[in-house]
Amino acid sequence: MSLPMANNVVVSNMELEKLLSMKGGKGEASYANNSQAQGMHAKSMHHLLKETLDKVELHATDTAFVVVDLGCSCGTNTLNVVDVIINHIIKRYEAIGRHDQPEFSAFFSDLPSNDFNTLFQLLPPLLPNMEECLAANNHRSYFAAGVPGSFYRRLFPARSIHVFHSAFSLHWLSQIPESVLDKRSSAYNKGRVYIHGAGESTTNAYKKQFQTDLAGFLSARSIEMKRGGSMFLVCLGRTSADPTDQGGAGLLFGTHFQDAWDDLVQEGLISCEKRDSFNIPVYAPSLQDFKEVVEANGSFVINKLEVFKGGSPLVVNQPDDATEVGRALAISCRSVSGVLVDAHIGDKLSDELFLGVEKRAACNAKELLEKLQFFHIVASLSFAQ
User: Is residue 148 within 8 Å of 56, Cβ to Cβ?
Assistant: First the structure.
C-alpha cells in the first residue's frame, strides 16, 4: 500500500469552530443522506415537542412569531421539525380565536462551515399569503434565513425569539479540553481518540467542558428569548452515572472507530502522536450533568427533563447482511465525524480509516445491532418570569 504518511499538522481548537460540520453535499456519506435515524428519533419525540409548544405564551396582538433551529445541519430533518412547530402554533392561535395569523419566521442556525447551500436547496417555495400556504402542499408558511455562528454565544437580538429548538447538537463541544491534548497533563488521552473507557481525569475534563458550554448556551438564550417563550432541547445522553461509559456514543466512536485508528498506527501510516492528537469533541451527559447547569443558570423553568430511548443510529434493509451493517456503521460514523478526520489526516488516509471501520463492524454486525442504542437527554424549558 502506497498511502502517504500523515504529517503532524493538528486541527487546533481555534480551527475546530471553522471546520466542524456534518458532511455536506448529497453524496453517499453526506449527512443529508444519512440522517434518517435522527429523523425517526425526532419524530418519536414530537409529542414532547408539542407539550413544550403548548407552554409558549400567545397573544391576540402578535404580528410575528419567530422560531429558531440551533444546529440545523443540512438535511430535511430541520425543515420537518420547523413545519411541526409552526403548524402546531397555527392551531393554537386558531384555538384562541385568532384566524388572521401572524407572520412566521424560521432561522436555521449552525456553524459557518455548515452546508447551508444544500439546506436552502431543499426549502420549499414560499407562497405570498398564509391562506394559500395552508391550502397548498410542498410550500412553506414562513420566511427563512440562515444564521451562521456558534450557539454557545449570542446569535440574535434580545427578546426576539419565541421558540428555540435544538436536536442532536448539544453533545458537540465547543472545543477539545486543552488538558486532554497536553502530554504533561493527567487528562492527556493517550492511545485514544474518544473518552469512552478513558481515565477519570480525562472524562472529568470533558464533563467540565460540556457544562461550561451548556452554561454559555443557556446564558445566550436567556437574553434572546421573549418573555413567555420556550425551548426544546435534545442531545445524546447516557444512562450510566459513570462518564467513562458513554453508552451509544462510546460504541460508535470508542470501539471499531478507535481500532481503525490503531490499525493506521500499526501499519505505519500515522504516528502514535498523530492519533493521540485527534479526539472526538462529543460528550454524552447524564441527566444530573444537564440538570446541574440548568438549575445553576436559573433563567429557565424545567417543564420536563428525562432520558429518552432513541434506538439505533443504523438504518439497514437486511439486518442479516453483515456487510451492509458494517457499511452502515462506517457511513454513519463518517457523516458526522468525516470532516474532522479529513482535516486531520487527509482524504486518502481518511478513506483507509473508514474502510477499516467498515470491515471491523461487519465482523461484529450482530453485536452492533443488539447493543448500539442511543439514549437522549430531552429538556423542555420555559423562560422564567
Answer: no
Tell me the C-alpha distance between 340 and 278, whole Å.
Answer: 9
pLDDT in tens, 320-354: 889 988 888 898 888 888 888 988 889 899 999 99
Are 325 and 319 in contact by the 8 Å Cβ rule? The answer is yes
Instruction: Report d(CA 282, CA 262) in Å as an integer.
Output: 20
Q: What is the pLDDT of residues 76-118, one digit of tens each?
A: 888 989 999 999 999 999 888 877 889 999 999 998 888 888 8
CATH of the domain at 160: 3.40.50.150
**Is residue 267 a part of any domain in this protein?**
no
Domains: count for the chain = 1
Does residue 185 belong to any structural domain of this protein? yes
Contacts of 367 (CB under 8 A, 6+ apart): none
Q: What sign does the dihedral 175-181-186-192 (CA atoms) show?
A: positive
Q: Which structural domain range is residue 125 located in? A: 26-243+279-312+374-383
User: Using an 8 Å Cβ cutoff, are 118 and 23 in contact?
Assistant: no
Name the CA dihedral angle for 108, 315, 260, 356, rounded to a multiple of 10 degrees: -120
Contact yes or no for 177/259 (Cβ under 8 A): no
pTM: 0.86
Residue 263 inside a domain? The answer is no
Which residue bears the cell 429518552? Answer: 308
Is residue 248, in this structure, part of any structural domain at all?
no
